[in-house]
Design a protein that fits this description.
Low-confidence stretches: none
Number of strands: 10
CATH architecture: 3-Layer(aba) Sandwich
CATH topology: Rossmann fold
Strand content: 25-35%
Number of domains: 1
Shape: globular
CATH class: Alpha Beta
Largest sheet: 6 strands, mixed
Mean pLDDT: 89
CATH superfamily: P-loop containing nucleotide triphosphate hydrolases
Number of helices: 6
Strand order of the largest sheet: 6-7-8-3-9-10
Helix content: 25-40%
Radius of gyration: 17 Å
Order of helices and strands: EEEHEEHEHHHEHEEE
Length: about 220
């Protein structure tokens, strides 16, 4: 699902070029949970953005869901993300004014081209919420949900389009121990169903369900 080869990424900082990634190789196959660990500022989120077709300013070769990212238009990258990639972020990125179900439905509502009938999409959204144990919270707005519940809504949203690849950026960072464990177990279950899961984190507990645990340091994976 992911094949990154010799990935480099630099940024300008006050006229100085800062190398963040220095020739990173990474592959994640269907049914794998790969955890990338590293300190804050080590480039984990940058790596995830490249793997998720969110950052096109890299060097090297990136293939995601069978599609080379090199040279794709912004529209083609957006279509790939919407069709094949689910994202889970530490900050949840929910729309405050929307209830949980409407937040979950957003990827389907924003999909370009042929769209599902609204009722069919709603049924899938409710099924995604049930998968994360929040069927009873479908009408609740984010302000009425705990941090753990908001994260689970974000996961349900990521699952709506049945992605072949799930990318998670510090998904347990804002969660208590019990809720964090439930999220980690869910990643393991998704992998057993054939989803490729890439998690970037600084938390050791994610490694419990990981097929491989890698460390990103000084721009390189080991």
């Amino acid at each position: 699902m992911i094949r990154l080869t010799a990935i480099t990424r630099s940024f300008q900082d006050d006229g100085r070029e800062v190398e963040v990634l220095r020739g990173v190789d990474l592959s994640v196959a269907p049914g794998e949970v790969v955890a990338v660990m590293g300190a804050s500022g080590s480039g984990k989120s940058t790596l995830l953005a490249i793997a998720g077709a969110l950052d096109a300013g890299f060097g090297g070769e990136a293939v995601v869901a069978g599609q080379s990212l090199r040279g794709l238009s912004a529209g083609a990258l957006a279509s790939l993300r919407n069709r094949s990639v689910g994202f889970v972020f530490q900050s949840f990125n929910l729309v405050p004014a929307f209830p949980a179900l409407e937040n979950v439905l957003l990827p389907g509502l924003l999909r370009q081209g042929r769209r599902e009938p609204r009722e069919a999409l709603r049924e899938r959204g409710l099924a995604a919420l049930a998968r994360v144990g929040l069927a009873a919270k479908a009408a609740a707005r984010p302000s009425r949900l705990s941090g753990g519940e908001r994260q689970r809504v974000a996961i349900a949203r990521a699952l709506l389009t049945r992605p072949v690849l799930l990318l998670a950026d510090e998904p347990t960072g804002n969660l208590d121990a019990v809720t964090g464990e439930s999220v980690i177990r869910l990643f393991g279950e998704l992998a057993q169903e054939g989803t490729a899961v890439l998690v970037v984190t600084h938390e050791e507990r994610v490694s419990r369900v990981a097929s491989r645990v890698l460390t990103l340091s000084e721009g390189r994976l080991s």
